[in-house]
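To assess whether ligand presence alters the predicted conformation, the chain was also submitted together with zinc ion. Input:
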Amino acid sequence: MAVLELLIYPNPLLKKKTEKVEKIDSAVKKLIRDMAETMYFHKGVGLAAPQVGVSKQIITIDAGKGLICLINPTLVSKEGEMQIEEGCLSCPEVSLSVTRCRKVVVKGLDPEGKEVMIEAEELLARIFQHEIDHLEGVLIIDRVSPLKRELIKKKLKKKSAPKE
Ligand code: ZN
């Protein structure tokens, strides 16, 4: 297993829509293990493949109740609304209030290729929506008002500028 390098905003790969995984081969399984290790290493609650430079539909999540790895995840239903402060490993030091659905049902494949349905509420529901957003090339900064987005972009650009 290995801790992979995290892509940081404004890396263009983070804005790219990802592709479905057609075949769960050993490379995909290894990537999933490495993604989980990377997520735990950075003390994240979720990670999406584009964040480690792979434009594929794979997410890993641990909301404190064990590891969930999902391939080709899709939201099959959603209800309710909540507003929560969110962070993202790819937008360091940014915390934003994002509107999410309170309850979701997610469908996808587990690492063995078996179809699974997961009902999630509150924190877990939020993480699923955040990670599935990543697969669409959507970041938390895309979920706030344009004015706020500009302020954050400036802050992040300053941070990623080369240090003298
Ligand atoms: Zn994120």
